[in-house]
């Protein structure tokens, strides 16, 4: 006789790192790291961009050792195991963080989200399933989740501006892979733009600055 699967909701402590001054911030960017990264190291790519901006890097809820010697630790947003509940949990987590940031920075612009690599799918799912109004999405070097069809885009991104970014030498997520989403974005009437840069699977500092300060 096979065992029966059950679920229970428990309290969980999540970690996030910030760059900038909440008291003077005119805008708040939430930036989502890629697979196997930690938030504090991911945030280093944003150093120097915090003038007038609070940059917030939440960390994925699942950590693991990334090397055989168990010396390096990374985090992931989800795996395919128990997929639907992991997606729900990450949206709930990010909604709670966004609500806290609105309380801390009531004078700032909110709804600005950047996802890198695995963080792209996380950002896209959050924009569709969460309670937080998102007005700007920068999706950098990652594919959109497969469940994101024309109907979901039209419904979830009607008031959102989407920037899709990719490096010309990115072998993990090549540009043609991202271009496959173009027909759906057009059919859904999503305001979007593609941006390329000379580089690989990484954040480009010049383009990053231009997009965050636009």
How would you describe this protein?
The protein has 214 residues and is α/β, with parallel strands linked by helices. It has a single domain (16-212), classed as Rossmann fold (3-Layer(aba) Sandwich), CATH 3.40.50.1820. Helices cover 30% and strands 24% of the residues. The protein has seven helices and nine strands, in the order ββαβββαβαβαβααβα. The strands form two sheets. The chain has a seven-stranded mixed beta sheet with strand order 1-3-2-6-7-8-9, with helices on both faces. A two-stranded antiparallel sheet has the order 4-5. β7 (136-140), α4 and β8 (161-167) form a beta-alpha-beta unit.
Q: What fraction, in percent, of the residue positions are helical? A: 25-40%
* CATH 2nd-level architecture: 3-Layer(aba) Sandwich
CATH fold name: Rossmann fold
- Share in β-strands: 15-25%
Describe the oligomeric state of these chains in a short phrase.
Answer: single chain
Total domain modules: 1
Uncertain runs are none
Mean pLDDT: 94
Q: Please count the helical segments.
A: 7
């Amino acid at each position: 006789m096979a065992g029966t699967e059950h679920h229970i909701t428990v309290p969980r402590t999540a970690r996030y790192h910030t760059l900038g001054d909440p008291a003077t911030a005119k805008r708040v960017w939430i930036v989502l790291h890629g697979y196997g990264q930690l938030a504090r190291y991911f945030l280093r790519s944003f150093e120097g961009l915090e003038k007038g901006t609070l940059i917030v890097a939440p960390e994925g809820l699942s950590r693991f050792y990334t090397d055989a010697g168990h010396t390096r630790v990374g985090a992931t947003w989800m795996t395919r195991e128990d997929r639907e509940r992991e997606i729900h949990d990450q949206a709930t987590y990010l909604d709670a963080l966004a609500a806290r940031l609105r309380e801390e920075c009531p004078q700032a612009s909110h709804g600005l989200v950047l996802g890198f690599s695995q963080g792209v799918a996380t950002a896209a799912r959050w924009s569709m399933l969460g309670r937080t109004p998102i007005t700007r999405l920068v999706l950098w070097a990652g594919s959109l989740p497969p469940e994101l069809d024309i109907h979901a885009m039209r419904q979830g991104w009607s008031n959102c501006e989407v920037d899709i970014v990719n490096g010309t030498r990115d072998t993990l997520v090549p540009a043609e892979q991202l271009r496959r989403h173009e027909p759906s974005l057009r059919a859904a009437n999503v305001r979007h733009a593609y941006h390329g840069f000379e580089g690989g699977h990484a954040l480009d500092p010049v383009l990053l600055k231009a997009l965050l300060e636009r």
